[in-house]
Amino acid sequence: MTAGVDLGAPRTQAIRSDEDVVRVRQLVRTVAVAAKLSLVDQTKLVTAASELARNTLVYGGGGTVEVSTVQNDRRRGVRIVFADSGPGIADLELALTDGYTTGGGLGLGLSGARRLVDEFDIRTGVGEGTTITVTKWSR
Amino acid sequence: MALSAEESGRLAGLLAEHTDQVVQRWTELVATSLRGRLSQAELRRQVMELHASMITAGESGLTDLDAEAAAELRAVLAELSQGRARQGFSATETAASVFTLKDVLLELLEIRQGDGALRDFVAFSSFVDQMGLFTFETYVRARESLIADQAEQLLELSTPVVKLWEGVVAVPLVGTLDSARAQVVMERLLQTLVDTGSPYAIIDITGVPAVDTQVAQHILKTVVAARLMGADCIISGIRPQIAQTIVALGIEFGDIATKASLADALRHVLRLTGLETPRRQSRREL
Predict the structure, then answer these.
(1) Are residues B132 and B67 in the same domain?
(2) What is d(CA B140, CA A64) in angstroms, rounded to the nearest whole number?
(3) Residue B281 CA, distance from chain mean position
(4) Contact at CB, A112 and B216, closer than 8 angstroms
(5) For chain B, which terminus, N or C, has the lower number of CB atoms within 10 Å?
(6) Is the pLDDT of residue B19 over 50?
């Protein structure tokens, strides 16, 4: 797992519909503003969260999001955990390739989200669901 | 089961016997809970209607609000709570319109005292609870349909296509661009292109808080569709943070012209059509 200490209670949001993806965006923005991320970093994190939340909904069949503020030696950050108990990802390397999609999108969501955050951790297996943890640190 | 047939009959009897008193007192109590936001006459009419349908239901030996015989009573309750929901009353205020009947019944039974008064009150009270819950459920449903209606109206409202200049139309996008809205935007834009015969369309995304791959895909599809109809599209309102995010995501807009502001986009179009210079001249003439 990634380093850093949790600050305060994490806030969770279920993902069951498109409206929930919007709620996740709003929740992440609120937490990112409170953690004093710059406007660019806020936008990057919100966009990454939007991609991953939609993946959780579309490919994972819905799941939960947990957003928390974290602190390491020098900086504050926001950590988001997306968890679903869907079919999992069979070929992770392929899924992380730009332009690869099984759902008719641009195929940039997962790989793009990884580029938008500072730390990206993915745990998945066929039939085991997928858990993605991302962290964005303030500069 | 809330009431036995006997209790139900006694409730109807009690309500019928003290008609004036019940209607009077009930109206007063409801009026207090609504703090004068509905006229006395209107309240009195509603209370009388409820009162009458309760007597009808009670006389037919009603034991449960879900029963066939309670159809009329349910309809009256539903109408009442739907009305309250549309008029903007809170759930508590709506439920109070029914629950205040308990106070009225208590006052009536206190006068009667006697054997079984307490037992009757408990039975009547649980029936009123049922009515209250039903009112509450109908209220929630009415509010939900109200919200759904408003969401639809918002969808219509928030996607205007404006004519910016002769031959130039613009779509200022505000808020979340989900599939439903993207569809509406595309249809509107394409229709406006036909109606106005405009060769240029500007899609302004200043009001879109985050551009993710889905939003980008919707915009790209709209641009391609407009191109098929012979119109050139310019995307404007790309703020610095959005530009950086789009680059990191790896989205490519290809040969689609993009501008930082709507003004830049309009200037770009006017330059393409050779219309920019006359504008400066006309200002000097003023």
Answers:
(1) yes
(2) 26
(3) 50
(4) no
(5) C
(6) yes
Helix ranges (DSSP H) in A35-96: 39-58, 92-95
- Do residues B171 and B128 both lie within one domain? no
Q: How many domains does chain B have?
A: 2
Q: How far is B212 from chain A (nearest CA, A)?
A: 5
pLDDT of A111 reads 92
The minimum CA-CA distance between A80 and chain B, rounded to whole Å, is 17
Domain chopping of chain A, boundaries: 5-137
At A65, the amino acid letter reads: V
3-class SS at A77? strand
Name residue B120's beta-bridge partners. none
> Which pLDDT score, from 0 to 100, does residue B2 have?
64
CA distance A130 to B71: 50
Alpha-carbon distance of B9 to B63, in angstroms, equals 9
**Whole-structure pTM value:** 0.66
CATH value at residue B263 = 3.30.750.24
The ipTM of this complex is: 0.83
The residue that leads in pLDDT, B120 or B198, is B198
Tell me if B242 and A51 make a contact (CB, 8 A cut-off). no
Q: In CATH, what number is assigned to the domain containing residue B11?
A: 1.10.490
- What does the CA dihedral B57, B105, B22, B5 come to, rounded to 10 degrees? 20
- Looking at the fold, whether B65 and B101 belong to one and the same domain comes out as yes
pLDDT greater than 60 at residue B286: no
Give the whole-angstrom CA distance, residue B52 versus residue B184.
Answer: 49
B198 & B128 share domain: no
Rg (CA), chain A: 14
Contact of B233 with B196, CB cutoff 8 Å:
no
- Domain identity same for B166 and B147: no
3-class SS of residue A49 = helix
Instruction: Give B181 to chain A, closest Cα distance, Å.
Output: 12
Domain boundary among B120, B154, B188: B154
Q: Is residue B111 very low, low, confident or very high in pLDDT (cuts 50, 70, 90)?
A: confident
Give chain A's residues under pLDDT 50.
1-2
CB pairs under 8 A between A and B: 66
Query: Homologous superfamily of A5-137 in CATH?
Result: Histidine kinase-like ATPase, C-terminal domain (3.30.565.10)
